[in-house]
Amino acid sequence: MNSSIVNIMNLPDEILIIIWNKLSKIDVLYSFLNVNRRFDKLVRDKIYTRSIELIKNNCEDEDNCSLSDQILDRFCFDLLPQIHNIIEQFILESFSMERILYAGNYPQLCQLTLVNFAQELAIRVLADESYFAHIFKSQITHLVVLIDYTESRSYDDLRINVFQRIFSLLTTLTDLDFGQCSRSLHPVLTFNNSSADECFSSTIVNLRINVRTFDDCQCLLDGRLSQLRTFIVRIDFISNSKLSVNNTDILHLECFSLTSYNQTLDYDSHVVPLLRRMRYLQQLTLYAIVTNRSTFIDGIHLSNEILDHIPQLQTFNFNIITYTYANNQLYENIKCTFPNGKFSQVDFYLDQYPNGEARSHIYSLPYKMNVMHDISSNFPGGLFTNVHVIWLADIFCPFEHKFYDRIARSFPFLTELTVINYIPRNYKPLQEANNNNQVSSVIVFPHLTHLHICSANINVAEQFLVDNNTLLPRLIHLSILYRYIEEVTENFTCKATRRNCVNIKRLNFFFSTQFVHCEEFYLYFPCYK
User: Fold this and answer.
1) Cα torsion 285, 290, 296, 300: sign
2) Which candidate, 125, 227, 234, places its Cα nearest to that of 174?
């Protein structure tokens, strides 16, 4: 027994627990279970065994969250059979899920999170004849399903193979989170070709889901989920409805969140009437990008058209962008529409474009959502600790170094960034600093893993990939035009960009067919898959 183990064994329980709490549960169980009786007693405490996450720590590469075979073998053959009867929650991924569930009976298991859940696996395990049917049918009350969105399946396949099977088999399910994540790519469901009998449940209380159309959202509110109290929905497209108008009040819903990242012309004709039906709501979250409106959505509109119709509402979080033409509303005029007594703190900014279009962006504070889209050059900044995904979009004004610095400070936990900017800068960041008689600071995005550069000029690529401008220590996924990456890296030889490229595992080249890369390319991106 080496000296480090001896030293650990000599530590009092209180110090051991402090050390273990800084480790992952996997590491604690793997390293200290079956070492001696004292460690066994401590490790078997519910703090380490009630909820177990058997995927890689900080799994940034969504396609590979599997633990090594060595770790899985130890858990499945040695550790799980000893503690299976006290585990209440599992976080698993597709590759090892069946193997782990075979390792014990898990009589207390009631909460399950499935990462990268493939449809083929769903067909196999979400069936009455499945070995795990008794667990799913009579024990699971809380289920989170993160779908493998790389699968090329139809919307109907996803509904039939996974969603419908969940409702048919899991008869004790009360909480379902189906595919909701902050990533730009996400699986969506549609119910256009389904009947109310397909996804019927008298037990579901809380539902989080992504759907394709506004009609799909309305289908889930048609009474088939009779006990639904919390409904969090992300809708891809809010457009012309094919369903007949329903003015019936939705009586039981207490919490509703509607998010749509795509622009809509039908906010006033679809979203507002739906919200008015929810007279007993206590919490409301609204995220919308509204176009072709005669006036901006402001405090007066929100009060008169929505809040006055929901008298029991206690919390209202919103992020709303409005595009309009020929609008003369001024900053001070909009500010006056948000009285302190009726709204929590609100911030906003305006954009006036050369083509005559105007845009307002209003949002409640503190900002509760984890995504913010279409941030322009006039964004005032702030502190948004909940936000992990943003889009920077301005087709009329170039983004400068100081703007990106403001973004980095405002969103300290950013993991995914999309930049849409077509106007080139007149000078580079160093010149910008010299013109202002100051030293240009290097911007750091410490948590950024995904970067998408959608630009008609190379400025944005230079801004983010040259390490004198920006540091991206955790970048693993880059989307960019091939000619930009070729130019900014000087044909994969530039030292100034190597630092931000060395960890990249995935490169997506816009408008490019797949081709064989040169040897220098693979040397420059050693982690590229």
Assistant:
1) negative
2) 227
Q: Find the mean pLDDT for residues 270-291.
A: 97
Task: Record the tokens describing residue 214, joined without a space.
Answer: 């506004």
**What token pair was written down for 119?**
């449809």
Rounded CA Rg of the chain: 26
Rounded to a whole number of angstroms, the distance between the first and last alpha carbons of the chain is: 41
How many angstroms separate the Cα of 67 from the Cα of each of 76, 446, 525? 12, 25, 24
Task: Confirm if 295 and 326 have CB atoms less than 8 A apart.
Answer: no
Q: Which residue has the higher pLDDT, 64 or 522?
A: 522
Enumerate the β-bridge partners of residue 456: none
Partners of residue 257 on adjacent β-strands: 232, 285
Mean pLDDT of 235-251: 87
Q: Is residue 216 within 8 Å of 190, Cβ to Cβ?
A: yes
Give pLDDT tens digits for 185-212. Answer: 677 888 876 666 677 889 999 999 999 9
The Cα–Cα gap between 418 and 16 comes to 43
Q: Which helix (H) or strand (E) holds 391?
A: strand 389-394
Which are the contacts of 133, defined by CB distance < 8 A and separation ≥ 6?
127, 169
Going by C-beta distance under 8 Å and a sequence separation of 6 or more, which residues neighbour residue 340?
A: none
Residue 211's closest CA among 242, 190, 185? 190
Cβ within 8 Å of residue 472, ≥6 positions away: 445, 448, 451, 464, 465, 500
Task: Please report the pLDDT score of residue 211 as a whole number.
Answer: 94
pTM beyond cutoff 0.85: yes
Distance (Å, whole) CA 380 – CA 122: 46
Instruction: Please state, in angstroms and rounded to a whole number, the distance separating the CA atoms of residues 30 and 32.
Output: 6
For residue 384, the one-letter residue type is F
Q: Which of 181, 50, 41 is nearest to 108 (CA)?
A: 50
293 close to 322: Cβ distance less than 8 angstroms:
yes
